[in-house]
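Tip: read the tokens left to right.
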């Protein structure tokens, strides 16, 4: 509870302000979940680990690739969870600059390193890559 909500307002509205604070936090969290749910149907990064390997890899490598992508995703989340508070102590601007650079590098990789596979069968893609 913020200090200014517990001591500064008059006693007659103090309880209402404390409740309003909690209600607004709840509304903010609900809004974030609803926006996430609304955007999840349009193809977000979460589906990439399961959709991209079958499109660009031979069938024999899809299982290990999807498992490796899921493992890497979990390890990255663990790393960020452990490192973010330490970096945030150093300065919020530097932390988000690092994340922005990582996001930019991911966009460059996606634009330059991934092949277009629309309109072709998996067998045609494997033949083109020399796996068949």
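Filled-in amino acids:
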């Amino acid at each position: 509870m913020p200090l200014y909500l517990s001591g500064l307002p008059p006693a007659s509205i103090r309880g209402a302000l404390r409740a309003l604070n909690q209600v607004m936090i709840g509304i903010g969290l609900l809004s974030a979940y609803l926006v996430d749910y609304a955007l999840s149907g349009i193809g977000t990064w979460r589906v990439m680990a399961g959709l991209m390997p079958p499109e660009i890899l031979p069938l024999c490598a899809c299982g290990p690739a999807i498992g490796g992508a899921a493992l890497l995703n979990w390890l990255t989340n663990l790393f960020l969870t452990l490192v973010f508070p330490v970096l945030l102590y150093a300065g919020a601007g530097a932390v988000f600059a690092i994340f922005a650079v990582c996001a930019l590098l991911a966009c460059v990789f996606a634009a330059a390193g991934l092949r277009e596979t629309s309109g072709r069968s998996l067998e045609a893609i494997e033949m083109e890559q020399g796996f068949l």
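Helices lie at 3-7, 11-40, 48-56, 62-90, 92-113, 122-129. The chain has two domains: 1-42, 45-132.
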